């Protein structure tokens, strides 16, 4: 009998996914604690000096004009992505574990024993149920800010302020205008004197002065909510593979554009939970239930966010032959690769996976048979 071997290519390296952190562990900080302390000392020294500090956009309240087209492209790519994903998911088998929430794309669902949470089975096998688009593309919401450099949302205002997808809020703050989500656009910059921000512009611009739906806090409470058209646009491709290709391109464009926006526009995340707030500072809503939230009185432990916090990625096991009814077993899990769920879904529909995910797929590894696993060298 000819034995197949698991060969590792010498020209490529295997990219390991970031490990899952325990509930008691804090997320890695983008900026080191020493650097944050140094900046705090500099700001404290500047507050003692009564002098004007010139701020650059977007810290001064103005838009970065070069990033306004990027924000529009990100929002357009998101619409195309949702359009394509909603159509491809109808022809794809998506499962999720009702105990731990793990997702699998393909049929049949895998038998890898990775369900290790409170309430899971003794053998750590998953309890699979039919999933959908929300399992493949989870949405992280953020409070919509009328004034991005104004005061933070308080706990008492948590039910008055709209929560919208964080990626949409980022595009709104970067220059995309929505009638249903009004945002203050300054014509003159703000100034910082002795640590205090001075805004010499009027409370509301002239073009919004006649609107009566703005209360004293700057939030639209009694506004008439507009209903956006939820019908997806017709795709230019009728075949499933063409839709998947467009969706893959939109996914990459959205990621690339969001990365550019986050280099200028700040996004905050909680160090212990998945809460995100787009803006220079986090909100003050006491809703955190993560590790030692009692010591923080329910407040979030805010820190600088990454792209994965803004657009969470659900990694699933990669199925090399989706049409062969291949069953992924626990004994061979070290030979399997992983992909983001939406990328795996488009790949199974016929789209080509880019070079970004080649090392995650482990295509250069030959998966042995179940009876050959012990003979692999």
From TrEMBL:
This is APO protein 3, mitochondrial. Residues 96-180, 269-355 form the APO domain. Pfam families: APO_RNA-bind. One of its GO terms (molecular function) is RNA binding. InterPro entries: APO_dom.
């Amino acid at each position: 009998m000819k034995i197949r071997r698991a060969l590792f290519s010498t020209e490529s390296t295997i990219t390991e996914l970031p490990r899952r952190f325990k509930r008691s562990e804090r997320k890695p900080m983008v900026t080191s604690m020493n650097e944050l302390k140094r900046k705090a000392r500099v700001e404290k020294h500047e507050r003692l000096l009564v002098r004007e500090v010139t701020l650059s956009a977007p810290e001064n309240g103005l838009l970065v004009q070069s990033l306004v087209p990027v924000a529009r492209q990100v929002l357009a790519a998101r619409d195309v992505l949702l359009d394509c994903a909603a159509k491809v998911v109808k022809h794809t088998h998506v499962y999720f574990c009702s105990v731990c929430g793990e997702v699998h794309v393909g049929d049949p669902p895998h038998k890898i024993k990775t369900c290790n949470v409170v309430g899971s089975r003794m053998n750590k096998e998953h309890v699979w149920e039919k999933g959908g688009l929300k399992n493949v593309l989870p949405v992280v919401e953020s409070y919509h800010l009328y004034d991005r450099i104004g005061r933070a949302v308080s706990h008492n205002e948590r039910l008055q302020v709209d929560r919208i997808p964080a990626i949409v809020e980022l595009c709104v703050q970067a220059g995309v205008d929505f009638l249903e989500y009004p945002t203050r656009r300054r014509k003159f910059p703000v100034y910082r004197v002795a640590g205090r921000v001075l805004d010499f512009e009027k409370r509301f611009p002239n073009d919004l002065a006649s609107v009566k739906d703005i209360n004293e806090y700057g939030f639209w409470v009694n506004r008439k909510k507009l209903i956006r058209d939820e019908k997806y646009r017709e795709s230019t491709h009728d075949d499933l593979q063409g839709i998947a290709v467009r969706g893959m391109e939109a996914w990459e464009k959205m990621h690339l554009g969001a990365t550019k926006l986050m280099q200028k526009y700040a996004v905050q995340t909680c160090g212990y939970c998945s809460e995100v707030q787009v803006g220079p500072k986090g909100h003050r809503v006491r809703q955190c239930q993560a590790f030692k939230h009692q010591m923080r009185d329910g407040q979030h432990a805010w820190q600088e966010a990454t792209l994965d916090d803004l657009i969470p990625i659900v990694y699933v096991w990669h199925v090399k032959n989706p049409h062969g009814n291949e069953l992924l077993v626990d004994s061979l899990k070290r030979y399997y690769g992983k992909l983001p769920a939406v990328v795996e879904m488009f790949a199974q529909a016929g789209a080509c996976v880019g070079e970004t995910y080649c090392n995650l797929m482990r295509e250069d590894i030959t998966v042995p048979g179940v009876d050959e696993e012990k003979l692999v060298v």
